[in-house]
Design brief:
With 402 residues, the chain is α/β, with parallel strands linked by helices. It is 50% helix and 14% strand. A hairpin with a 5-residue loop joins strand 4 (180-188) and strand 5 (194-202).
Length: 402
Amino acid sequence: MTATALTGSPLAAMLECPSAFSDEELARRDTVREFVDRRVRPGIAAWYESAHFPVELVPEFAELGLLGMHLQGYGCAGRTAVDYGLAMQELEAGDSGLRTFVSVQGSLAMTAIHHHGSEEQKSRWLPGMARGETIGCFALTEPAAGSDPGAMTTTAVESGGEWVLNGSKRWIGLATIADVAIVWAKAAVDGGRERVRGFIVPTDTPGFVARAIEPKLSMRASVQCDVELTDVRLPLDALLPENAGLAGPLACLDEARYGIVWGAVGAARDALTQAADYAQERSPFGQPLASYQLTQRKLVDLALEVQKAQLLAVHLGRLKDAGALPTPLISSGKLNNCRTAIEVCREARTILGGNGVTLDYSPLRHANNLESVRTYEGTDEIHTLILGQYLTGHNAFRPGTR
């Protein structure tokens, strides 16, 4: 069953909560849905199997206004948080790797420049990135730091009228195909104490080396990389001037996490609809699999979980558009919807039986991808502690601090 065929069915009425959206929002959602049906579904199994990211789709993402679509000006679409969420949901119904491209480009690299860059930097980089002519990456995570970006060891030292960057980054999406990297490093600015600062680094700068991480069991139709920075020399104006410390990259992560809240729903919905369709077509012991009580219980339980995840995404999206979303609540969506989506995909696979372990069907592919989605932009543990601090006022990352 394609996502388009889902529209108007009893299952769609339950999963998609159409009354929660305006006609205009649904129309924009359906534009992305049609694109996924036409351009992603026919090729995704082969791309996943061959670990190929279809870079040829990038101009089409741009034509749909998906790159930096939540940002204002500089050629960006300036859509609402709910519009952005619905688009991410439809992309991830195709594959997490494609939604990840749009998130890295727009919610991380472009957002860093848009929120923390100078006017000159915004005008220089954002229009080309919105058109898909320039690809960006976001180099924050390090091999030994992981969930603790404040422990990064990458440094930026001012020397001879230039910045000199040295360090290592890991799990950096798009780095081998990117034209520009937003690199986060510890630097002393204006004689002050060392703080995390962001730098715009063209990837053809001498000393910048990116290598794809292979082989992977997850996110195979995507690009994740190790990055080495060895005496990377940059002009002084490569510094993002409006970023005052670690809060800068964390604010970008919040934008990406918000997209994941919706994207995970798309993966879960796609897995469930494929399992439901299969249950109608498969006839063990002389009658449709869907007619058996145990199968119906699985389908009902999964549909309830996807429906709840969708409603949580809508709730957070409406709060975000109203400017009333407490940042820690993004963690509630990322934590809940990733956990839910993985369990939905795994259980949907059981309805498919042995056929479910092939790439003819999406549930296990989605489940494998979601292991990465569940981990990046904050693990379950990190989001639990964010919410725990929000609820209690106590910082359990480093007990005794606030």
